[in-house]
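Reminder to self: tokens first, then the designed residues, so the page reads top to bottom the way the pipeline ran.
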């Protein structure tokens, strides 16, 4: 570890210099990268939707009271009917 520290201290200027890339380098680099086909993106989106729907159905089947809204009964009494 001391050797590395000494090396960095001796060559401090080399570490402080900012390496400048030629103008437009990043754009050319990004153009050379292979682009993902759109059908892969659509596949991932649809699979995410299917997974979310499956989790929702699973939770609905395990915990039905969470999604259950009881229906109120109409409470008619003899005095309310004229």
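Designed residues (82 positions):
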């Amino acid at each position: 570890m001391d050797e590395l520290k000494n090396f960095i201290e001796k060559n401090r200027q080399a570490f402080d210099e900012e390496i400048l890339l030629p103008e437009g380098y990043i754009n050319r680099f990004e153009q050379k990268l292979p682009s993902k086909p759109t059908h892969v993106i659509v596949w991932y989106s649809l699979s995410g939707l299917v997974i979310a729907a499956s989790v929702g159905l699973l939770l609905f089947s395990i915990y039905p009271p969470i999604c259950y809204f009881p229906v109120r009964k109409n409470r008619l009494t003899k005095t309310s009917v004229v």
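Residues 38-62 form the longest helix (25 residues).
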